[in-house]
Every structure is written in structure tokens, then in C-alpha cells.
Amino acid sequence: MRWLMLMLCVWAGPALAQPGGSAVGEEPSVLPDGEGRDEVFYGCTACHSSALIRRSRMSRTAWDGLMDWMVEKHGMAPLEGEDRRLVVDYLARHFGAAAAPARARSPFLN
Ligand code: HEC
Asked: Which of 7, 49, 65, 92 has CB 3.0 to 4.6 Å from 23, enough for a Cys bridge?
């Protein structure tokens, strides 16, 4: 009986940790390769799918501010010092405002 409880926890654990459920089965390779990718993947997809990150385009300042928002509003463990620089640099490099698709930037299509 004990092993059954254990199996249940192992099975249900990840599903409960991810509200949307879509992060189940994601691999770090869903994010563009680069310095800081694994830190971002493992640090950020514990709570939600990487899609929330991949669909976002923000300046470095905005990503940096988002870290505080994630800590204050959503209970993320505070990210400081070198780790924070690594994560924010990665996000700004790969999901920066300049990387926005043309459609998002066009004044005619807004
Ligand atoms: C402790 C849990 C937790 C962690 C860790 C976490 N987030 Fe979040 N995040 C949330 C919650 C909760 C939301 C709101 C989800 C929703 O709206 O469905 C959210 C929303 C977001 C959004 C969407 C914001 C918007 O405009 O709607 C982005 C982008 C995001 N997170 C990025 C990150 C990044 C990058 C990291 C890693 C540095 C991270 N999150 C780590 C809990 C977390």
C-alpha cells in the first residue's frame, strides 16, 4: 500500500505544481540555446509552462521588473546577484523587445 501512495505522489506532484498543466513533459530545448537557458528553464517552468515566457517580448528593464513581480505576487524564490543577471540577460537576449515580430511593432496593425 505504501508504494501505491508513493507512486501517486510521484505521478500527481508535477501535475499539481503546474496550474496550466501544459508544462508537463517540456524539455529545456523548448527554449533557445544559450547561456542561462537551463537556469531559466528549471527556475521558471516549475510553476508554469515556458509558453508564458516564449510569447513575451520585453526590454531588459521590464524583465528585471517582472522578476520582482513574480516574487511579490506569485511567491517565486527571490533571484539575486549573479543568478539574476544570468536569467535576465538570457530573457532580454532571446525575448527582448527588439526581437518582437514585425506585426507587434507596426503602428498600422495595432
Ligand atoms: C513560484 C511560481 C512561479 C515561478 C517560479 C515563476 N513564475 Fe512566472 N508566473 C507565475 C504565476 C502564478 C503567473 C500568472 C500565471 C497566469 O496568469 O496564468 C506567472 C506569469 C508569468 C508571465 C506572464 C506575465 C503576463 O504578462 O501575463 C511571465 C512572462 C512569467 N511568469 C515569466 C516567468 C519567468 C521568466 C520566471 C523565471 C525567472 C518565472 N515566471 C517564474 C508563477 C511563477
From this structure: 49
Element spanning 73, H or E: helix 60-74
Instruction: State residue 19's pLDDT score.
Output: 47
The C-alpha atoms of residue 50 and residue 30 are separated, in whole angstroms, by: 8
| Parent domain of 75 | 36-99
The residue whose C-alpha atom lies closest to atom 6 belonging to ligand 1 is 44
pTM over 0.85: no
Q: What is the CATH number of the domain that holds 44?
A: 1.10.760.10
pLDDT at position 25: 80
Q: For residues 64 and 92, what is the distance between their CA atoms, to the nearest angstrom?
A: 9
Lowest mean pLDDT among 22-26, 28-32, 37-41, 106-110: 106-110
Q: Whose alpha carbon is nearest atom 23 of ligand 1?
A: 52
